[in-house]
Amino acid sequence: MDNSTLDLTSEISTGVRSLFYAVPPVESSFKSIDEVPKYVDKAVPYFFVAIFMEAFIQLIRGRKDLIFRWNDAFSSLSAGVASQVPLLMVRNIEASAYIYVFEHYRIAELPWDSWVTWLLCMLGVDLGYYWVHRMAHEMNFMWAAHQVHHSSEDYNLNTALRQAVLQRYTSWVFYLPMALFIPPSQFLVHIQFNLLYQFWIHTNVVGKLGPLEWILNTASHHRVHHGRNRYCIDKNYAGVLIIWDRIFGTFVEEKDDEGISYGLVHPINSWDIFYIQLCHWQYMISTAMKTSGLGNKISIFLKGPGWAPGKPRLGYLEDIPDIQAPQPRYEKDLSLAMTFYVWTHFFIALMAQNFTALNRESLGSVHTLCSILFIMWTLTNIGFFYENKSHAGLSEFLRCATFLVADYFYCNTASCPQSLYIMRIIFFFSSLLSLYHIFNKPSAKKID
């Protein structure tokens, strides 16, 4: 077996194990932040393999109701892509703030290559995540971002990737105490592992895991967290270790005799990616404007989503409807041909995002900015198609035409990779199809 094969095998092994926090300290301790692998970026292929494996398992089990829906899958995956787009231009604020505090205010510096440091950082990040997550449910301005993750009415591995663009801008402060003594290289490893671990627990395939349920956050525990049944509300905030919920009184066990209905108590009912990300901000501002008293207006943002004047900080649980499963799910869908079309362009946008993320140091700022605009315009248009917007065809024609014009003026044909010729063909025919859509606008298929 040659070295290249060994390296590939090792990389795959590390990638898979990183999803389960199973990369030991000897393999995941680094002296400098520049040496820390981009575990999350490298995990993207494993996400998709796992998603289709989950769908196959549900198919052979005869649970077609639990197989991902293409429209909901787009909504989840587009949110995941959009949440990573700001990182193409600027460093993660969690990392930047942590590094700044460590460099200027650290009290002590634990050794980067010690398993004790590794373990302390793992526990510190997980405890920090518990409080980030809990506050994201108990403070309305943080919930405005986090509700994106809960907005899916499905519960599968796609849902794990449904992330908010704005959440990281409120979460960074919870990790700063560790920066007083734990090196940033350790923090950057564990903040990624903590996120990756939570991928596999977003599934109905995995049942209860016996004694592990006492210590680890599992699929069973996290199903409760995503439920909108009354007993599920504001429970099981853990990232990796469920012990924090047991310690702080927010744990509840999944009921075997009661099915879980997933999603928000008040569903969003949209596949528009910008609306999903921003709708709760719109609601909060509108509510604050209609509420009398400055203190009450401020409380709309700082207290729980269920708060109103005269109620306790988190509102009354009894005010939440006692929703039971199954519940009807929001459903607007496309024809098979249009589904193939939009998903072809989604995967092109995903490849553009992944390529830019892995090569952002060598790409210029203009190239990166163009990639961001291309990705976001693609996701926006797909949302328009799923929502059957009247201007979807025109926006798509302009996007495809812009790509072809930019390609004509920007790319030197002699040095272009062969794959770009395929892209040109796709976008040329896509521009024609979008023109056809403009003049022969099909009606979306609505399923009750």
Automatic annotation (TrEMBL):
Sequence ranges assigned to domain Alkylglycerol monooxygenase C-terminal in this UniProt record: 339-411
One Pfam short name: AGMP_C
Molecular function in Gene Ontology: glyceryl-ether monooxygenase activity; iron ion binding
The protein's name in its UniProt record: Alkylglycerol monooxygenase
Domain called Fatty acid hydroxylase: residue spans: 118-250
Catalysed reaction equations from the record: 1-O-(1,2-saturated-alkyl)-sn-glycerol + (6R)-L-erythro-5,6,7,8-tetrahydrobiopterin + O2 = a 1-(1-hydroxyalkyl)-sn-glycerol + (6R)-L-erythro-6,7-dihydrobiopterin + H2O
Membrane topology: Multi-pass membrane protein
Family the entry assigns: Belongs to the sterol desaturase family. TMEM195 subfamily.
Residue ranges of the TM segments: 43-60, 81-102, 114-132, 334-352, 364-385, 421-439
Main location (coarse class): endoplasmic reticulum
EC numbers for this chain: 1.14.16.5
Cofactor(s) demanded: Fe cation
Cellular component GO terms held in the UniProt record: endoplasmic reticulum membrane
Intracellular or extracellular location(s): Endoplasmic reticulum membrane
Biological process (GO), any one: membrane lipid metabolic process
The entry's keywords: Endoplasmic reticulum, Iron, Lipid metabolism, Membrane, Oxidoreductase, Transmembrane, Transmembrane helix
